[in-house]
Amino acid sequence: MGQAVTDNREMNRFELAVGSQTVFADYRRNGRTLVISYVEAPPSLRGTGAAGRLMAGVVETARTEGLKIVPLCGYAAMWIRRNRHDDLLA
């Protein structure tokens, strides 16, 4: 993968740095649930797979921490289903 997805707890978002730009997923933790409210990629990174790499890191974090995911963001919901991580859905 190259870059690592980081959990910026101060800003409540997961981040993936790609060059000088950042793809991010805003979240809130609610007990053992991770609510993903929004995924954003800068326009120049759209279509490059950067948001998918970010989501792979979010899913890995959720599995490691034993969390379920509530994807309020349409992209996050679609990515989780398309990549067959339905078992993580709350």
From TrEMBL:
Superkingdom, taxonomy of origin: Bacteria
Protein name: N-acetyltransferase
Xref: Gene3D superfamilies: 3.40.630.30
PROSITE patterns hit by this protein: GNAT_YJDJ
Positions of the N-acetyltransferase domain: 6-90
Pfam families xrefs: Acetyltransf_CG (PF14542)
Organismal lineage: Bacteria, Pseudomonadati, Pseudomonadota, Alphaproteobacteria, Rhodospirillales
TM regions (residue ranges): none
Annotated signal sequence range: none
GO molecular function: transferase activity
InterPro entries to which the protein is assigned, alphabetical: Acyl_CoA_acyltransferase, Gcn5-rel_NAT, GNAT_YJDJ
Organism for this UniProt entry: Azospirillum oryzae
Record's keyword terms, sorted: Plasmid, Transferase
